[in-house]
Amino acid sequence: MKTLIAYSTKTGNTKKVAEAINDIIPFSDLKDISQVESLDYDLIIIGTWIDKGTADEKALKFMKSVENKKVAFFFTLGAYPNSDHAKDCIKNISKVLEENKNEIIGSYHCQGAIDPQLIEFMKKTFGPDHPHGPNSERIKRWKDASTHPDEKDLEEAKNTFKKLLNL
User: Fold this and answer.
1) Among the CATH numbers 3.40.50.720, 1.25.40.10, 1.10.530.10, 3.40.50.360, which is that of 3-113+149-165?
2) pLDDT band at 132; cut points 50, 70, 90
């Protein structure tokens, strides 16, 4: 099966996961979304980082260009993987891909380190009662996220895609 793994990354988190998935798929093409010149693939796996509850702008634009394909996706986010925010991200990304009649075969997501500049922005801009402000719970989550994706996350990504693709 001719497979493209196309990813968008800001801090390198999503690229790490893309490389792990690429390691287990024979003869796949791994490309930054900006380097994709053709969609002539049997399967397109799209990786993104999360921005405002969905794929980042570059990945969204790419997703909207993919039509009538077999697809899968993965993402990294600063929130915990089992959070309502992560579940909303799955729904939002799925909706974008389904709008162009793509067949989604599965997905994977894990926590990823948050851009330090974004953390500093949130600390300076928002108070502790704001949804993005620095309260003790958020500061702990930011610290927890700073170690991800870790080796366990990368192994889980590999195992998820091995199962999806019967490898």
Assistant:
1) 3.40.50.360
2) confident
